[in-house]
Amino acid sequence: MSLPHAILTALLEKPSSGLELTRRFDKSIGYFWSATHQQIYRELGRLEESGLIRELPSEVPVRGQKKEYEVLPAGGAELARWVAESQDPKPMRDPLLLRIRAAGVVGPQGLGPELRRHLELHRRQLAQYEAIEEKDFPPGRDAVEDRLRRLVLHGGIALETFWLHWLEEALGEVEDMSGPQA
């Protein structure tokens, strides 16, 4: 159940509306935990019903005004409990790995273009992470929050670097088996 915890994290960083949360998910949390606009709004309702967040009072009630939410003490306690909780790693489920395994049965023809496409996608993602690091983490930003955010970003950089190396190896193997246009 990580979506509610991702939302609690984002709201503790900054009270926000559902729309603002969606934008923030797209720009930061979404790099490692994605959620649709509908999922975020549904979860905001659940969190509010559970007494973990509340709608911020509006100075001037206006029909159609976006609701902003903040985390209540119970929400902060829930997030702290969850952070300390033990959880096993999730098994990997990647369709590309299954397709390569299937190619072991039916042959690698046509697999090369998909490997090249994935290679390019991972190159772009790595470049995006590196740009975030350069922009958001200049030398000297050593507050605990910054160090932990940078640590998550370094995890993303390491994963993208792994995928690039592995995809280059896989593409080399596939091209060796069936020629460069495999």
UniProtKB/TrEMBL annotation:
Pfam families associated with the record: PadR (PF03551), Vir_act_alpha_C (PF10400)
Transcription regulator PadR C-terminal domain boundaries: 92-173
InterPro entries: Tscrpt_reg_PadR_C, Tscrpt_reg_PadR_N, WH-like_DNA-bd_sf, WH_DNA-bd_sf
Signal peptide interval: none
Domain Transcription regulator PadR N-terminal: 7-80
PANTHER family: TRANSCRIPTIONAL REGULATOR YQJI, TRANSCRIPTIONAL REGULATORY PROTEIN
Full protein name: PadR family transcriptional regulator
